[in-house]
Amino acid sequence: MVDAHVNAVMILGEPFRQDGVIDFAAQDMSPRVQELIPIMLKHRLRPPPDETYSLHRKLSGAFLLCTKLRAKIACKRVFDEIYERYKFGPEGDAPATESK
Questions:
Q1: Residue 2 pairs with which residues in a beta bridge?
Q2: In angstroms, what CA-CA distances link 42 with 45, 50, 56, 68?
Q3: What is the pLDDT of residues 30-52, one digit of tens each?
Q4: Which residues, other chains included, contact 72 with Cβ-Cβ below 8 Å and sequence gap of 6+?
Q5: pLDDT at 81 over 70
Q6: Alpha helical stretches, state H, 25-98
Q7: CA 17 from chain center: how many Å?
Q8: pTM to 2 decimals?
Q9: What element of type H or E holds 16?
Q10: Angle between helices 75-85 and 2-17 (to 10 degrees)
Q11: Are the C-beta atoms of 78 and 84 separated by less than 8 Å?
Q12: What are the φ/ψ torsions at residue 81 (nearest 5 degrees)?
């Protein structure tokens, strides 16, 4: 079960590791993650925390929308640009972002 979860996270991270444009119409991430879901459900001890479940739903929804729209996006470049501008706040405070 742990391996299935790790594999699912690694699959979902692929667009953010690859240079260049990701063609969501040609991707095979969704079917690969769907193959892992029965393993995760069968062997889980409890449901994931709400935060994890919420993030998973948002990412899955965004990926499915990109697939339906046949989007081609440079995901790593977009992620890197956002990460570069992100400002971490002091410990205990909410992170602050710099606006342009």
A1: none
A2: 9, 19, 18, 29
A3: 889 899 989 988 998 888 788 87
A4: 21, 22, 23, 24, 25
A5: yes
A6: 29-43, 50-68, 75-85
A7: 11
A8: 0.72
A9: helix 2-17
A10: 90
A11: no
A12: -65, -45
